[in-house]
Amino acid sequence: MDTFSKRQYIVAAIMLGIAAIFVLRLFSIQVTNKTYKQFATRNVLRKNIIFPARGFIYDRDKALMVYNKAAYDLLVVPRELKAFDTTELCNIVRLEKAELVDAIKKAKNFSYYKPSIIAGQISPQVYAPLQEKLYKYPGFFVQSRTLREYPNKSAAQVLGYVGEVSPSMIEKDKYYKSGDYIGITGIEKAYEKELRGIKGIRNEMVDVHNRVKGRYNNGADDTTAVLGNNLLTGLDADVQAYAELLMTNKRGAIVAIEPATGEIIAMVSTPSYDPNLLVGRERSDNYKMLMKDSVNKPTFNRAIIGTFPPGSTFKLVNALIGLEEHAITPYDRFSCGGKGNSPIKCTHSHESPIAMREGIRESCNSYFWNLFRNVISVKPSSAEGFQMWRDHVMKFGFGQRLNTELSSEVKGNVPEVKYYDKYFGQKRWTSMTIRSLSIGQGELLVTPLQLANMVATIAIRGYYITPHLVRAILVSSRVFRELKFERKE
């Protein structure tokens, strides 16, 4: 056999070998390999995210203040889309055709292979007819989730609300994906990681008619969602409701604190709003409506963001500082000239002269001006005396965040020596110059929460527990993790 013939046989053998490999591989795909067999019958593997139920929020007596209700999201995988009746789908899910077209366009721009939400927060009433006809819409599927429900329609600024994550939030925490929900304000935001739980995954096989045919690999690759933890707060739902009733048609705030524990029993800011307005598909429109109300500012929590001169309530602090620094005794008396008094007028009619007890009872401006002057005069200079006074004021929690769970809390303002030095000039101001501080006016600004904390501090004789809203994390019905808060003196 010549060399050429040998080469022909070798080439033929190689070709036969390659053909045999292809035949065996084809047999494996079509007959023995179940995964390829499933795809050959046009089944599609779909990964569904299982959203855990968000944790409940209870009041101090375990009355529900926030729980969950069922809702659904309609999602689409652009790669799987086929021609469908857009009008029918829009009528079912109550979307405008332009909204549907725009949502699909955004989904394609995001990813052809990953699911995107087309219509979120669908109610059970809308979900029922949608589920019946979902087979008509290849590429679309429904994912269950829960929405918040606020049965008492109260404590809106305290409890807060939940909303869809923004791109910046996703960047900060990789737990979240587009379409996820997160606590935006209030307790919902402060305890987000406790409330949110852990997402699960369910892998399903879906046929050409968009029908679920079962779990992929019998669910071996699925993960179970873990429910969010429940919160036990120090709030009293009945006290909260009554305080809100008292503030009907008023603008202001009420804060009630349990002095021994620092638990906030009630926190009211009015005007307010029904927290259920920021739940469901109308949330966006309702949010815009609330934000546009620049007169009432219903989302503004005046209890922790609003700052005001404390006025006569602050006289208690000045009295205690005077006693602490031995600048006065409870029995020292000062005269009051009433409306003609100088340098501060007194608008209250009462006997004169008066001591501390009567000065507090009558809220006498003249008495507290004299007391304040004595306090500042304890030190060699006005600046030193004022700094000593300011240090005492700060110990009551004024001029600083009290570090409640609410991140929007503000400091208020307790003026500093450098402020007066800059405004009047060094050594060019005295207690007379800043006398308005003696009656809680002037540059002094506090929040309603700080005032409530001041009263709590006095009630337990000189210290306070950091004011807080949540008492414990309820891991289960029998297990809880009680939170600890700092004592300050």
Output the CATH homologous superfamily of the domain at 311-446. Answer: DD-peptidase/beta-lactamase superfamily
Oligomer state of the chains in this structure: single chain
| Number of distinct beta strands | 16
* Largest sheet report: 7 strands, mixed
Cα shape:
elongated
Given as residue ranges, the uncertain stretches (5+ residues, pLDDT < 50) are 36-41
CATH class descriptor of the domain at 311-446: Alpha Beta
Structural class: alpha+beta
CATH topology of the domain at 311-446: Beta-lactamase
Average pLDDT rating: 90
In helices, the fraction of residues equals 25-40%
Whole-angstrom Rg = 34 Å
> If helices are DSSP runs of H or I spanning 4 or more residues, what is the number of helices?
17
Q: How many angstroms does the end-to-end distance come to?
A: 108 Å
Strand content: 15-25%
Assign the CATH architecture of the domain at 311-446: 3-Layer(aba) Sandwich
What is the compact description of this entry?
The protein is an alpha+beta fold and 489 residues long. The protein has helices at 3-32, 34-40, 86-93, 97-110, 124-133, 156-159, 167-172, 186-190, 192-195, 237-246, 283-292, 315-324, 356-362, 365-376, 382-395, 417-424, 448-459, and strands at 44-50, 57-58, 64-76, 116-122, 140-149, 162-164, 181-183, 200-206, 212-215, 230-233, 252-258, 263-270, 464-465, 470-474, 480-482, 487-488. The protein has a domain at 311-446: DD-peptidase/beta-lactamase superfamily (Beta-lactamase), CATH 3.40.710.
Features:
17 helices; elongated; 7-stranded mixed sheet; 18% strand; 16 strands; 489 residues; Beta-lactamase
